[in-house]
Amino acid sequence: MFSRILGTGGYLPSQVRTNADLEQMVETSDTWIVERTGIHERRIASKEETVAFMGIEAAKKALEAASLNASDIDAVICATTSSQNAFPSAACEIALGLGIGNVIAFDVAAACAGFSYAYSVAHNMIMCGQAKKVLIVGSDTLSHACDPTDRTTIILFGDGAGACILGASEEPGTLAVKLSSDPSCGELLRLPVPKRPNCASPDDGSPYLYMKGTDVFVHAVTVLAKLVHETIELAGIKPEELNFLVPHQANMRIIAATARKLKLDMSQVIVTIDKHGNTSAASVPLALDEGIRQGRIKRGDNVLLESFGGGLVWGSALIRY
Ligand code: COA
Q: pTM score, two decimals?
């Protein structure tokens, strides 16, 4: 018995924020942003485009790709750190929007690595027989969590949602999953929950996302280099048998460094950062969906998914698509 991806989908808001738009908001330039990050534009969610709304739209496309009805799903997991409510969870709202009742539904909070964590939970639910078809959604609106006057963060984040349906299968399948964290590095990347009256609150500082960019960069490059090799080893395949890398889209230089460690040609790497920016938990499922819909990733390909985010947390899945 294996778990296997049955279908994928994605949703991006229609509002585009280009580097030229950012030049009007903060002291920056298109050249600086492109050279340091690889980002040209990102999408910005409207008020109506909540985490749940975008998740529902991405899920509909994944269901269509898998030729399944919503009623076939027996668990919904949403990876997010920017949903509107602590409860009902975004997963419950997505289930409601899809018209599914009596379903396992919960959110997973692992920042930009959320999709890897959700994928691992879904895989294990299938392997132990708790569910047969799991809808995994990564959806975030972190552009709205950034201080619009802070040029070090506002340039990086965009909004969107990606979805995939993982199902029980006799064919492989998920070959390996790996998760880890370094909680001692929590201060490098922090997003406070909104302050409420009469509630204990961790600090009186800015409500916006805070990031020590250079430190996060160094940790990401180091951790991911180790993670990808360990995942390949765990999956029992040779590095040269890997067909595609679907990395978290945080910085083009981090993506290129990971590809170099794997001796992969950039044509074997799915890159969306130029158009999406960093969409947090949505970044990997959106890139995976794009790679599949473009016909680049084909059935039978060995594909390595990896992500890294605030916590610090990181995770991977090596799949035979
Ligand atoms: N436009 C122009 N200049 C900028 C700028 C911007 N948007 N943001 C920062 N700068 C300036 C800095 O103030 C600094 O100026 P100084 O040398 O006069 O002090 C200079 O550019 C270099 O800044 P630095 O932060 O060292 O740049 P960097 O090469 O580390 O790139 C990041 C910054 C944020 C792009 C990079 O560190 C990064 O991508 N980090 C990882 C972020 C990440 O992955 N986060 C999410 C993890 S899920």
A: 0.96
